[in-house]
Amino acid sequence: MKDIYILAIESSCDETAASVVVNGREMLSNVISSQVPLHTIYGGVVPEIASRKHIEKIDYVVNEALKTAGKELKDMDAVAVTYGPGLVGALLVGVGYAKALAFGAGLPLIPVHHIEGHISANFICHNTLEPPFMCLVVSGGHTHLVEVKDYGEYKILGRTQDDAAGEAFDKVARAIGLGYPGGPKIDKAAKEGNPDAYLFPRAKISDSPYDFSFSGLKSAVLNFLNKEEMTGHTVNVPDVAASFQKAVVDVLVSHTVEAAKEHGFKKIALAGGVASNSALREGMRLACEKEGFELFYPTPILCTDNAAMIGSAAFYEFRKGIRAGLDLNAVPNLPLGSAFPG
Ligand code: KG4
Ligand code: ZN
User: What spacing in Å lies between the alpha carbon of 141 and ligand 1's midpoint?
Assistant: First the structure.
């Protein structure tokens, strides 16, 4: 069978990224221009700045991805792009650029769901991993427990009812003075702290057992910090970071393992920025070992936003004959599992 080369583009949030992926599994390049330092001073992503930076960087990033792969546009079989969910202005930059590129080169255009991309990062890192498996997608914008029935076939078993896991990390990090982005900073600080120093709440939603809620936990940490400040106590930042992190990880692990058991899955995968959290990986590893489940997660650079994951997801769509027209638009709230055009 002929090898399929896909040039993939991702611009849904604050990373401008492009990658060349072969047959959905082999990454020839993975170029990421991160805007994190630009947004740090505002304590979070500023949508308009993100769009403007994507416009400035996208041409360079795409050319660099081809150059690093040792390929030219004429060697590609398709151009793939994230068309949702995400920030509309940011998505439009990638979508507009990909449409022009595909049209100019006479290549098919493959529309990719951002979360489907996160899940597919596992296919690049684990060559033998095949569906079905249970996937916990935990990022700055999403917390989904997903049944991956087949390539491109998903069923959402649980989702957050308020904040996403990464969002909770970012908000608590800001409150304890660690800054943005909070996830990696809490992860690092927690290594010096005692995870049992404080007992923060673990939310259970009775009628939707696999749903998540992190806003109560976030409020509990904020209330605790206020109380300590008012009573003149100095807060031990590593202890708060470790105790908060443990509360998040406990819920993520227990929901995922329970869902896998109930639905008869033996393989669990993690995806999204929070999947690089060391406590989550360790907690999930121990739980999977106990249950006899196999655990998969991408390398940290493929957990956070990148285009290689988009190229992997696009390959399986390409095989199914899914193509976008030049009327492809950005869909900021695109649901997972909806058939294209979403
Ligand atoms: O997947 P991603 O790059 O963007 C979205 O699609 O949202 O995820 C970014 C999120 C941020 O909230 C960041 O704080 C979190 O992932 N994150 C982490 C870690 N590394 C990144 N959270 C916890 N521990 C980490 N090590
Ligand atoms: Zn993402």
Answer: 9
Measured distance CA(235)–CA(20) in Å, rounded:
47
Topology adopted by domain 131-297:
Nucleotidyltransferase; domain 5 (3.30.420)
CA dihedral 139, 143, 145, 146 (to 10 degrees): -60
Ligand 2 centre and the CA of 14: distance in Å? 9
269 secondary structure, DSSP code: E
Interstrand relation of 143-150 and 15-22 (parallel, antiparallel or unpaired): unpaired
Q: Which CATH class is domain 5-120+303-319?
A: alpha beta
Beta-bridge partners for 44: none
For residue 300, the SS3 value is: helix
- Least confident residue range of 112-116, 181-185, 299-303: 181-185
45 pLDDT exceeds 90?
A: no
